[in-house]
């Protein structure tokens, strides 16, 4: 097994789109089914600060992005920004979001997700941005984040959330 974490390139998008769709039934991410856009367009989110692909033996199997909290191109929900800012005790300009984060089901438990998260957290640290994320509590992701040090700072109902879905959890990772 040869795992590489590298900047995402456009030629990764078809394989990443397939991985996103494949893992959705188990993870519940993204929480929109069907997606209102092509999976490749969901992965290639506008306004990202940086994006990475996890490549296992030459095949893209996971993705993560860092996103600015206040950039209008990213169009984040203002309540999430407020919760994250309060949770970190920082202005929203000093925050960075970990998002578009997933791995193919067949590579779970092999350290792929942890390696992607490390790349995102290193990027945010290099940019002097405090880490934030949001999660819909329908799979095991919220528990995994809690076990790895992320703190819940509130819940909200973003405009994209379906009526029958639970509130989104806003989380922050305290900086050491």
From TrEMBL:
MF-aspect GO terms: acyltransferase activity, transferring groups other than amino-acyl groups
One Pfam family from the record: Acetyltransf_1
Return the PROSITE patterns for the record: GNAT (PS51186)
Name this protein carries in UniProt: N-acetyltransferase
Sorted UniProt keywords? Acyltransferase, Transferase
Query: Ranges for the N-acetyltransferase domain?
Result: 3-176
Which Gene3D superfamilies does the protein's record reference? 3.40.630.30
Stored InterPro entries: Acyl_CoA_acyltransferase, Bact_Acetyltransf, GNAT_dom
Q: Which PANTHER family match?
A: AMINOALKYLPHOSPHONATE N-ACETYLTRANSFERASE-RELATED, AMINOALKYLPHOSPHONATE N-ACETYLTRANSFERASE-RELATED-RELATED
